[in-house]
Amino acid sequence: MNRRLLVIGVLIWTLAGAELAQAQAPVDARAAELRAKLGRDLNQMVAQFDGVMAIAVKDLVTNDLLAVNADLLMPQASSIKVAVLVELLRQAQAGKVRLEDRVEIRKAQFAGGSGVLQDFGDGTSAVSVRDLAALMIVVSDNTATNLLIDRVGQVQVNTTMQSLGFERTRLMRKMIQPEEEKRGVENVSTAREMTRLYEHLYEGKLLDPQHTALAMELLKNEKYEPTPIGRGLPAGMALASKPGSLGGVRCESGIVLQEEHPYVLSVMTTYASDDGAAERAIAEVSRRVYGYEERLAHSNVHGVRIP
User: Tens digit of pLDDT for each residue in 234-278?
Assistant: First the structure.
């Protein structure tokens, strides 16, 4: 009789434990469902986009990665300028380049497209290397970019990217090279690699603290016009990024500096039938991702909103 009571007692204890485990399981399951919903939304947006789209999102708190077409090699347009910036600052911290050195601006070096240096007089001004970097990132100045590529070396940019593990991020040409464009020579990367590049920059893995701070300062500066990712964020949300655009191409990668839950977002499009629609699509991806990350930042483990 005692043995029978013992078996019944053990059975009751076991069932109670199973019920407790089931009651606790939805805590993780609810967060997983929220993540899965975002994943479904992103996949649907990629499928419905009139062209090709690639997305990668890296949460810098949880290290969670969401990716759609993240390994497709995509044209970067001006987004590749962040690789030039990283190489410039690595050479500066190694003493190979002096940021205070001044570069004379000559008409023969002017490049079209975005920027202000092409409107300067021939030989009437000299701009510091540091300020060329600011022009390259903040107003996407193509003349400044080409001057910096001359200074640091295209081959060295690619050698550094390779050594850092970014095997598919490549600076293949200077800015505004129509004949090379016709031959299909483009600056390229993937959403996964650009996301990791910004993650490593944020974590101080690419540069020393002084030069990391300078890179982040330049990337955070308000751009000459609202960027696609920025349009999907609430007013005042800090964003450290570099967008890029060419005919049929719109892309942007950067860090959304949400205080409690910073994250990296990279969205790339190509073969777009409508460039304006491509920018709106990137903005919508940004809006959806921010909504997810903001809820994670301001909810407890049960999803209850907290101050």
Answer: 999 999 999 999 999 999 999 999 998 999 999 999 999 999 999
> Do the Cβ atoms of 195 and 58 come closer than 8 Å?
yes
* CA pair distance 46, 126, nearest whole angstrom: 45
How confident is the model over 194-229, as pLDDT tens digits? Answer: 999 999 999 999 999 999 999 999 999 988 789 999
- Which two three-digit tokens encode residue 220? 């955070």
Closest CA to 101 of 134, 76, 126, 137: 126
pTM exceeds 0.70 for this model: yes
Tell me, yes or no, whether 282 lies in a domain: yes
- Whether the CB-CB separation of 44 and 38 falls below 8 Å is answered with no
Q: Is 15 part of any domain? A: no
DSSP per position, 231-289: HTS-TT--EEEEEEEETTEEEEEEEE--SSS-EEEEEEEES-S-HHHHHHHHHHHHHHH
The beta strands (E) that lie in 105-236 are given as: 126-128, 188-189
* Of residues 86, 99, 101, the one with CA closest to residue 208: 86
Q: Cβ distance 252 to 194 under 8 Å?
A: no
Residue 277 lies in a domain: yes
Q: What is the CATH number of the domain that holds 100?
A: 3.40.710.10
Establish if 31 belongs to a structural domain: no
Distance (Å, whole) CA 93 – CA 78 = 24
The secondary element (H helix, E strand) that includes residue 67 is: strand 65-68
